[in-house]
Design a protein that fits this description.
By secondary structure, the chain is mainly alpha-helical. The protein has 8 helices and no strands. It has a single domain, classed as Hypothetical protein af1432. The longest helix is centred in the first third of the chain and has 15 residues, at 47-61. The structure holds fe (ii) ion (2 copies).
């Protein structure tokens, strides 16, 4: 099973286009926005954050062999879309994973079971303070944490999974990350 997931991850080198092999970005983004219940004009966990996480994931992916960029970008677009408040919401990752399963069941995510499992795992545990040596899961979590300056928090280098993310943090001030 692990070998199967590894070969699927290694085979995937998709680029930043609207129509992906495994999902249509505009459709997934629209579904996520429709599911989002917080006020999108002032939320710190809404679409502007999702798009920054996606950019971060693409940046990290360019320096990370073997990562599944489609899964990482799906994570970015979906991981916070089921938040129910702006503060403590420990189950929002699990709800996002359930939402991904719903999109899969509707035929909107063309992922095999291994890739869907990676996506759901990354979403379920993204807010549990973990690191991962899986290249795709590591990119998902690091891309999210690199956007912590939006809420006035500097990313913690010891909670970075990805080597390039660690290098990047050493070279850049967290305060200037979003430019
Ligand atoms: Fe989150
Ligand atoms: Fe997030």
């Amino acid at each position: 099973m692990k070998k199967e997931i590894d070969s699927l991850l290694a085979a995937n080198t998709n680029t930043n286009t609207d129509t992906e092999r495994s999902f249509q970005r505009s459709v997934v983004l629209s579904e996520a926005k429709n599911a989002f219940v917080l006020n999108s004009s002032w939320t710190q966990h809404g679409p502007s954050h999702w798009l920054q996480v996606e950019k971060n994931a693409v940046m990290l992916g360019e320096h990370t062999p073997g990562c599944d960029m489609e899964v990482a970008r799906l994570f970015a677009l979906l991981h916070d879309c089921r938040r129910q408040n702006e503060g403590r919401d420990p189950d929002h990752g699990a709800r996002a994973a359930d939402f991904a399963q719903e999109l899969f069941d509707k035929g909107m995510l063309r992922l095999d079971p291994g890739r869907l499992a990676v996506l759901k795992y990354a979403m379920t545990h993204h807010n549990n303070g973990q690191v991962s040596d899986d290249p795709t899961i590591g990119i998902c979590w690091d891309a999210d944490r690199l956007d912590l300056p939006r809420v006035g928090t500097a990313p913690n280098i010891s909670l970075m999974s990805n080597q390039y993310a660690k290098k990047w943090l050493r070279l850049h001030s967290a305060k200037t990350f979003r430019g």
